[in-house]
Design a protein that fits this description.
Strand content: 5-15%
Number of strands: 2
GO molecular function, one term: NADPH binding
Order of helices and strands: HEHE
Largest sheet: 2 strands, parallel
Low-confidence stretches: none
Mean pLDDT: 83
Structural class: mainly alpha
Keywords: NADP, Oxidoreductase
Protein name: Enoyl reductase (ER) domain-containing protein
Distance between the termini: 40 Å
Number of helices: 2
Length: 80
């Protein structure tokens, strides 16, 4: 594996100071998986309601804040 790569600047995102490199590395994985599940597999449209089963992990949280009406029994009321 390479130690260095060249990446276009418009494809970079600054990691918040409060986030570890390990946590930041998981964000694209969770967001990509959620996007594929919502739009490519389920073909959801705005206004639909979805149940996020076992949604306390990265993918479930991304889906829960995606703009759909979500029912995520694993998140506290203040995070729904």
């Amino acid at each position: 594996m390479a130690e260095y790569v060249i990446v276009p600047v418009d494809q970079l995102v600054r990691i918040p100071m409060t986030m570890s490199f390990e946590d930041a590395a998981g964000v694209p994985t969770a967001a990509g998986t959620a996007w594929q599940a919502l739009f490519e597999v389920a073909r959801l449209t705005s206004g639909q309601t979805i149940l996020v089963h076992a949604g306390a992990g990265g993918v479930g949280i991304v889906i829960s804040v995606s703009g759909f009406r979500c029912r995520n029994p694993n998140l506290s009321e203040d995070r729904r």
